[in-house]
C-alpha cells in the first residue's frame, strides 16, 4: 500500500530522531519513483497530496481554479465563523483587503524592528542563562507573543491570552464545541481593544490599521476582528513552532551551530534554509473548476494539500535536498507561500527568528539535547517540536538585569 494513501498531517509517523522528516522523505522518494506528483489520501474524508515543487507552484499561483476558502483542513475555528481574512479569501476580496492593510508590512519596516526583537530575545535568554538545563521550546515560547504585542502596540501582559486564543482556533478544527467559549472571549477582547485604540491611539500596528484607508474606506469592526484573528494565528502559532524546530536542529547539529556562532552574518540566509527544511505549515486549497495538474484530473469540491515539508525537499528544485546549506542560493521554498497570497507577515517572522537565533547563540553558544529527557513533536497543519530539553554551561544574566 502506498504511504500517501493514508497520509494524515495530523498523524505523521515519527522517526528515530523524534521528527516526521524521514517519513516526508520516504513519501517524496516513493512519489518520484512512481512518477506521481499528486496522489490521493483517504484521511479526513479524502484529499489530494501534492509532493512536487512544480505542481505546488502551479497550484499556488492559480487563483482561478483553486479557492483559498479551504486554506486550513479540517477548517480552523474563527470568532466570526468566516474564512480567514487574506489567507482564506479569493479575488477580488483578497486584493481589496490586502491593499487596505499591507502598508506596514514591508521589508524595510520589519528590519527597523530588528533591534526591538533583539531586546526581547535578550530578555528571554536572561531568564534561563544561569540554569544550565531548560526546555528551549519553553524558553523561546514567549517570543512570538511578546513580538506580536510590540508590533501591534499592546501590553506584553496580554501575550498569555494570545496563547489560549490560538490554541482554541486550532482546537476548533477537531473540537469546535470545546473551542467556542474561548472564541467568544477572543472576540470580546478584540472589540474592547479596538475601541480603546480608537480613543487612545499609539504608534503600534493596531492603531495604524484602524486608521488606514484605501479608496476612502476603512476596515469596520467585523473586518478588524477578522484581520487580527489571522494576524494572531500566523504571527503566533507558526512562529512558535518554527523557532522550536530551529533550536531542535541547532541542538543536535553541532557543526551548523558553531558555523552560525562564528559567522552570525550567515543567520539571515540560514533562516531561509530553516524555513525550507523546518518550516511547520502546510497549506490547502479547494478545487473550483475541473483541471488537470501533473497528469491528474482534479474535480470541483476536492481538497488539495500542498505539503511544504515534502515539496521543499524536492531534488528537482533543491540540489542535495536533505542537507542544510546555510547560504543556499537560490532558495525558492514555499514556507510563506508564493504569488498574491505570499504571507503578509513574512518579513516580520524572519526578523523574529533572526533576532532569537542570533542572541541565543551569542550568549549560549554551546548546548546539546538532554539525554535524560525526550523531545516531543506534535503533528498538525502547523507541526513541530513542543519540547526540546537541552543542557549547557550556565552563564550570567546581563548587567542591566542583574542590577
Radius of gyration: 21 Å
- In helices, the fraction of residues equals 40-55%
Number of helices: 16
| CATH homology group | Cytochrome P450
Strand neighbour order, sheet with most strands: 1-2-8-5-3
Order of helices and strands: HEEHEHHHEHHHHHHHHEEEEHHEEEEH
Shape, per Cα inertia axes: globular
Strands, count: 12
Q: CATH fold name, please?
A: Cytochrome p450
Low-confidence stretches: none
* Number of spatially distinct domains: 1
So, CATH architecture? Orthogonal Bundle
Mean pLDDT: 91
Q: What can be said about the biggest beta sheet?
A: 5 strands, mixed
Structural class comes to alpha+beta
CATH class: Mainly Alpha
Distance between the termini: 63 Å
User: What portion of the residues fall into strands of 2 or more residues?
Assistant: 5-15%
Fill in the keyword field for this structure.
16 helices; Cytochrome p450; alpha+beta; 403 residues
What does this protein look like?
It contains 16 helices and twelve strands. With 403 residues, the chain is an alpha+beta fold. It has a single domain, classed as Cytochrome p450 (Orthogonal Bundle), CATH 1.10.630.10. The chain has a five-stranded mixed beta sheet. A three-stranded antiparallel beta sheet has the order 4-12-9. A two-stranded antiparallel sheet has the order 6-7. A hairpin with a 2-residue loop joins strand 6 and strand 7. Helix 9 crosses helix 11. The longest helix is centred in the middle third of the chain and has 32 residues. The protein is globular and about 60 Å long. The chain starts with 20 loop residues before the first helix and ends with a helix. The mean pLDDT is 91.
Amino acid at each position: 500500500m502506498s504511504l500517501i494513501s493514508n497520509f494524515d498531517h495530523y498523524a505523521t509517523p515519527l522517526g528515530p530522531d523524534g521528527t516526521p522528516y524521514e517519513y516526508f522523505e520516504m513519501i517524496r522518494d516513493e512519489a518520484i519513483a512512481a512518477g506521481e506528483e499528486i496522489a490521493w489520501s483517504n484521511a479526513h474524508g479524502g484529499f489530494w497530496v501534492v509532493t512536487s515543487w512544480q505542481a505546488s507552484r502551479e497550484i499556488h499561483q492559480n487563483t482561478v481554479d483553486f479557492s483559498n476558502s479551504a486554506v486550513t483542513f479540517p477548517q480552523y475555528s474563527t470568532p466570526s465563523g468566516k474564512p480567514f481574512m487574506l489567507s482564506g479569501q479569493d479575488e477580488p476580496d483578497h486584493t481589496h483587503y490586502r491593499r487596505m492593510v499591507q502598508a506596514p508590512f514591508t521589508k524595510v519596516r520589519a528590519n527597523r524592528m530588528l533591534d526591538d526583537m533583539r531586546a526581547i530575545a535578550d530578555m528571554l535568554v536572561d531568564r534561563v542563562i544561569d540554569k544550565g538545563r531548560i526546555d528551549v521550546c519553553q524558553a523561546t515560547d514567549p517570543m512570538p507573543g511578546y513580538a506580536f504585542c510590540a508590533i501591534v502596540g499592546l501590553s506584553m501582559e496580554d501575550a498569555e491570552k494570545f496563547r489560549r486564543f490560538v490554541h482554541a482556533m486550532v482546537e476548533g478544527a477537531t473540537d469546535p464545541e470545546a473551542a467556542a467559549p474561548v472564541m467568544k472571549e477572543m472576540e470580546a477582547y478584540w472589540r474592547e481593544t479596538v475601541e480603546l485604540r480608537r480613543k487612545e491611539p499609539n504608534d503600534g500596528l493596531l492603531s495604524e490599521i484602524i486608521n488606514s484607508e484605501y479608496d476612502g474606506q476603512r476596515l469596520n469592526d467585523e473586518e478588524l476582528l477578522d484581520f487580527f484573528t489571522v494576524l494572531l494565528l500566523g504571527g503566533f502559532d507558526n512562529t512558535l513552532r518554527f523557532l522550536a524546530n530551529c533550536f531542535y536542529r541547532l541542538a543536535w547539529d553541532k557543526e551548523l551551530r558553531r558555523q552560525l556562532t562564528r559567522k552570525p552574518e550567515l543567520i539571515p540566509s540560514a533562516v531561509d534554509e530553516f524555513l525550507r527544511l523546518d518550516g511547520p505549515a502546510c497549506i490547502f486549497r479547494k478545487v473550483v473548476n475541473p483541471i488537470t495538474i501533473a497528469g491528474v484530473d482534479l474535480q470541483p469540491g476536492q481538497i488539495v494539500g500542498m505539503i511544504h515539508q515534502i515539496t521543499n525537499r524536492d531534488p528537482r528544485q533543491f540540489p542535495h535536498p536533505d542537507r542544510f546549506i546555510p547560504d543556499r542560493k537560490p532558495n525558492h521554498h514555499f514556507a510563506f507561500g508564493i504569488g498574491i497570497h505570499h504571507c503578509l507577515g513574512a518579513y516580520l517572522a524572519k526578523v523574529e527568528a533572526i533576532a532569537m537565533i542570533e542572541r541565543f547563540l551569542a550568549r549560549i553558544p554551546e548546548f546539546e539535547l538532554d539525554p535524560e529527557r525526550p523531545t516531543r513533536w506534535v503533528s498538525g497543519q502547523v507541526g513541530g517540536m513542543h519540547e526540546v530539553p537541552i543542557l549547557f554551561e550556565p552563564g550570567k544574566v546581563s548587567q542591566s538585569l542583574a542590577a
